[in-house]
Design goal:
The chain is α+β, with helices and mostly antiparallel strands and 315 residues long. It is 17% helix and 35% strand. It contains 5 helices and 16 strands. The longest helix has 13 residues. The structure holds zinc ion.
Length: 315
């Protein structure tokens, strides 16, 4: 069967202190905190979701903040760099903003595109690139207006432990198209207009170690529950061990590890983040799935209070 994902649904990473995480991704990068919930597999810790105004697929960066966990090491078997996309002409604004917040950045070029490369407070490698594709954000925060705001993911750089095999998974299983090579990078394109540009770094990297400052997994989009079941069969037909369909409250998920050791998820576009909050309220309340609601009092005592706030330096 011939199947094609539209691109990235979300990327999930492990970080440290949750308030530092919010202050960076909301306070500095201007993403909206669209869901404050707990890690369903470790309910005493948060799972924070950031995105555009409605948290649409292709814009969602999620975090497991584990303040006491060990630092990881970025390397093969992981997403190495996460790229965000801003409107054309917005890069000078972002350079100035990074300078203003004293965040060191480098300018790099791949495939004739200019990137601002920097790291978050917990060591994750990030980039900003400007492109015309993808709807402009409708969410303004602090001094970031919608002409400059991050639209969502541009894509990601994959560090594979077996790059020919990862290349085959991207093209034959996920349905991306290979579009070329530039120096140390191969580029692939998915069909959507956000989270659609994937690069594989060619030169080998030491094996990555999971921990604070590393990406945990990358999730690809399935447009419906029906298509999701087809994806599960499709992945099985390519001889991967794939999980059962798991209810993640805001989407259904399946997981498999590709042969370059990167953990892939396929997640459904529905039902989305307005399942348990109105769009206006997104991110304001601690939301729990029905099976954890009986433990709310205990969890609220365990979790440190956090908030999305405009930073002093941005007033
Ligand atoms: Zn996920």
């Amino acid at each position: 069967m011939d199947m094609h994902t539209d691109g990235i649904h979300h990327i999930t990473a492990i970080v440290g202190n949750p308030q530092e995480n919010i202050d960076f991704y909301a306070g500095i990068l201007g993403l909206r905190l669209v869901k404050k919930t707990v890690n369903f597999d470790d309910p005493g810790t948060y799972h924070l979701y950031f995105g555009d105004e409605g948290g649409k697929p292709g814009t969602i960066m999620t975090f497991f903040p584990w303040p006491d966990a060990y630092r990881g090491r970025i390397g093969s078997g992981q997403v190495g760099t996460t790229s965000f996309v801003v409107p054309e002409g917005a890069l000078p604004f972002w350079e100035e903003r990074l300078l203003h917040f004293q965040i060191e950045y480098k300018k790099t070029v791949r495939f004739q595109e200019e990137y601002l490369a920097f790291t978050d407070p917990h060591g994750l490698q990030l980039e900003i690139v400007a492109r015309s594709a993808g709807e402009d954000s409708t969410f303004a925060f602090g001094n970031i207006n919608t002409e400059h705001a991050i639209k969502g993911f541009g894509g990601a750089v994959l560090l594979s432990a077996a790059r020919h095999k990862t290349e085959r998974v991207l093209t034959e299983v996920m349905g991306l198209e290979k579009i070329g090579q530039d120096g140390d990078y191969l580029r692939f394109k998915a069909r959507g207009d956000l989270g659609d540009v994937m690069d594989i770094k060619l030169s080998p990297e030491p094996r990555g170690v999971s921990g604070v400052g590393t990406v945990h997994h990358i999730a690809w989009r399935a447009s419906s529950f029906e298509e999701h079941e087809m994806w599960q069969n499709h992945v099985k037909e390519h001889a991967f061990q794939v999980t059962e369909i798991i209810d993640r409250q805001y989407f259904n998920a399946i997981y498999f590890r590709e042969e370059g050791h990167i953990l892939f998820e396929i997640a459904t576009d529905p039902p989305g983040f307005t399942r348990d909050e109105t769009e206006e309220e997104l991110g304001k309340n601690l939301l729990l799935p029905p099976w954890l609601e009986p433990h709310r009092d205990q969890l609220e005592r365990q979790l440190q209070p956090i908030e999305a706030r405009i930073l002093e330096e941005d007033k």
